[in-house]
Amino acid sequence: MRAYNIKHAGAWRLGISLLFALASRIIYAADEKLESCQLHPKIEEQIIKDVSVWGSKGITEDLVLTVSKYCENAERITQHYCNCHPQRILIENGTVYLNNLIPNHRLGPHEHIGLLVELYEASQVYKLPDVEFTYWLDDHPPAETVLGPDGRTSWPYEPIGGLPPMVAWSKSEDNGVLMVPYSGAFRCASDSFDALEDQLHVLQSIPWESRKSMAFGRWNGFCTYYYGGLVRSADGLAVPCPRLYLNNISEAHPDLLEAYDLGRAKHVPLAHQNAYKYIVSTDGWSISSKFDKYLLLGSMVLKAASIRTGYYYNALEPYIHFVPFMEKHKDDIVEAIQWARANDEEAQKIARRGVEFAKEHLARPARLCYLFRLLTHLSKQYRYPVSCQRRKLCVPLVEELKYMSRFEKTAGTCNYKELLEKYATDELSAAPDDSAFEELYSQHEDPLHWPRDDVFVEELTRGRQQQ
Ligand SMILES: *[C@@H]1O[C@H](CO)[C@@H](O)[C@H](O)[C@H]1NC(C)=O
Ligand SMILES: *[C@@H]1O[C@H](CO)[C@@H](O)[C@H](O)[C@H]1NC(C)=O
């Protein structure tokens, strides 16, 4: 243990002592964890396609270590938000660890925390394989990875080519990341997917016939970069920013749609939008985190054309689960609504199939299965032993979640208690003197916190050669 950097030795000890505490439980619990599950074949297909980016060379350790090189000195660490974008995660013997800590001042958003919470639950339900990857906390565009049509890849921090394994909640065809659920919106927010699913009977209490035969949409009025020419309709023209242009269409067709940005019309809670037969979905900075929820409302979802996809989009079928627009031309939503009105039974079927799809493939058990299958496919790519012994810092995820449940900026972000209680982690409870909290707090607070695993592995190798 001497070899570990003093700065991180404390956290490493935290890891070790917890491991001892865990050991008996892991052995006991391992038998109970699931080792298989069934995904929608199209979703599984997407995973296999995305994982194939490493080809027969697989994932070598040097690719993973490039994430550490991303910030190689104190100046870069402070200027380049080193700990703000990459959340490095390692799973060994079924336990999830973090290899770096996001600074306190950037903690809070459920985009980050939701996945950690969901991953922890997945590790309690499934026997997860040994893997390591980075969750890139920036959606513009995912992790700056490029995947060329010829299969060539690049990432700004790896000049020789090749991608470290990274996950993000959305991507385009030309990004080399693996997709994960936008778990924060699925499970953390008060109007999360899971919360809406819990009140499905209430959402369904408005019969189809009583819903207004109009399209409804509400959002913040901003445009993402890809509506500047990257999304094109069949007529060859650039699709305008849906969130602004729909204001215009709504004004021109007040009898058909009320799709306005919040600068133009009042907020309407999601759970009340089912008063309309048709719900309009548009991208924000990236895919809409509301699209999944719209599918639950029992209304037919109209979805604007986009170049971005989410982890399950491959399984969605147009005119089966939703109706696309801005595909033929920028105003085709008008025709889509007229079609829906004239084909009411068909529109209702699309709405119903949307709900069925969401219940079957997007609900929490399906998302946990997804993470398990994704990591299982990913685990076959590693060409070196994935281990905490080769990483400078390994904080058990459960400790970070306990920290978040107490830290004021994150305490309200997600329901940690439900999870920590459900999986009975009380035998791991923080030391009564709060030392675990204090220790994590100071590392989250340290402006130069950035475990350099590239340097660390070099030192390990040198140490071994000297022996
Ligand atoms: C995982 O299990 C192996 C074999 O039992 C052990 O050597 C290793 O230390 C374990 N790793 C962790 C992080 O507990
Ligand atoms: C939408 O309407 C606004 C205000 O009337 C106008 O300035 C803008 O050009 C319109 N947008 C398009 C794409 O037609």
From TrEMBL:
Residues 127-385 form the Glycosyl transferase CAP10 domain. Residues 1-29 form the signal peptide. It comes from the Eukaryota. SMART domains: CAP10 (SM00672). The keyword Signal applies. Keywords: Signal, Transferase. One of its GO terms (molecular function) is transferase activity. Belongs to the glycosyltransferase 90 family. This is Glycosyl transferase CAP10 domain-containing protein. It comes from Volvox reticuliferus. The lineage of its organism: Eukaryota, Viridiplantae, Chlorophyta, core chlorophytes, Chlorophyceae.
